[in-house]
């Protein structure tokens, strides 16, 4: 089991941070490893929406479809995938520190199968590093 939790403080109101982060169209802008997304269900974003992601991780190209399984604007956003070699759940949460500062968490949970179990310890370290880069990038974008 891989479970990586990272967080950052962003100097913007919670509404700005959560609206930007929850919009899949922005994912390639702030996720270091995501190359592109494609809506599989019609906009707007809602429970059950499906979005295909193309990413590069550890030198491999990955394609997977996330489904939105929890959607509480300004509080929590959960995407889950069951396909591919590494079923994954991605969870965002936001907490207002004050009017202009937001704590954002990014958590990835998953169960690697097959040979990936051997890599899970290595993957945890690499995912934590990538998640922190992603959070630093969204912070830089939103604080411009």
What do these coordinates show?
The chain has 144 residues and is an alpha+beta fold. The protein has a single domain, classed as Alpha-D-Glucose-1,6-Bisphosphate, Chain A, domain 4 (2-Layer Sandwich). The chain contains three helices and seven strands; from the N terminus they run E-H-H-E-E-E-E-E-E-H. It has helices at 14-22, 27-30, 116-142, and strands at residues 2-10, 34-39, 50-57, 60-72, 76-81, 88-98, 101-110. It has a seven-stranded antiparallel sheet. The N and C termini lie far apart (37 Å). The model has no long low-confidence stretch (mean pLDDT 91).
List its traits.
single chain, 144 residues, Alpha-D-Glucose-1,6-Bisphosphate, Chain A, domain 4, seven-stranded antiparallel sheet, 3 helices, 7 strands, 28% helix, 44% strand
């Amino acid at each position: 089991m891989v479970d990586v939790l990272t967080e950052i403080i962003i100097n913007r109101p919670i509404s700005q941070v959560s609206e930007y982060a929850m919009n899949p169209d922005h994912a390639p802008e702030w996720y270091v490893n995501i190359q592109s997304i494609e809506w599989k269900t019609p906009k707007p974003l809602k429970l059950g929406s499906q979005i295909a992601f193309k990413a590069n991780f550890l030198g491999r190209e990955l394609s997977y479809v996330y489904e939105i399984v929890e959607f509480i604007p300004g509080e929590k956003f959960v995407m889950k995938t069951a396909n591919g070699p590494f079923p994954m759940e991605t969870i965002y949460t936001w907490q207002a520190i004050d009017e202009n500062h937001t704590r954002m968490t990014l958590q990835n949970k998953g169960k690697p199968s097959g040979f990936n179990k051997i890599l899970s310890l290595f993957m945890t370290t690499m995912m934590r590093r990538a998640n922190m880069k992603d959070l630093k990038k969204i912070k830089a974008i939103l604080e411009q």
